[in-house]
Task: structure prediction
Amino acid sequence: MRQLAARHDEPVLLEMERLGRERNFPIIDRLVGELVEVLALSIGAISVFEMGSGYGYSAYWFTRAVGPAGRVICTDSDSANCELAERFLSRVGRWNRVEYQVGNAQDALRRTPGAFDIVYNDIDKRDYPEAWELARDRLRPGGLYICDNVLWSGRVTEPDDESTSTQAIRRHNQLVYGDPGFDTCLIPTRDGVLVARKRSS
Result:
């Protein structure tokens, strides 16, 4: 899969991936990047809200999908990540598709009006249940909720792991799967990607 994904090699993307390795920074990486881009393209997404954006790696893929008329709202608590994202995405000519809000992702979603084609969640794992409760009502019918790290390196399957983060991810997964207003699946690529489509009725 990684060999096939090498078709996306370009200097900016390789630099972003190298930075992730050097800093041990949790990016979605190439395979999940391909996945979220195709998911966005498949529903004709032009509005994406990212809960947790880091230095713009996931936005790299979403900005490709939404096109010149699209908008990706990024969030992160560290202004240095916003500066890095601007530097990277400007180099590929897509920074003008981004609105980057520095601060708490949940607060940013609360104060941003409108419905979205996609809400992407990759914040602190302890906050996953809250993120879902906020995101579910902000999607248009047919829109997608996408969440990374839902397998948590397999820890969600270990009954003796009762850490706060693990319990929160388990609870999150149960909430999403239990919601009758969504069609949901879990894709076991990398650390697990949950995708939930909002039903029309």
Notes: The mean pLDDT is 96. The radius of gyration is 16 Å.
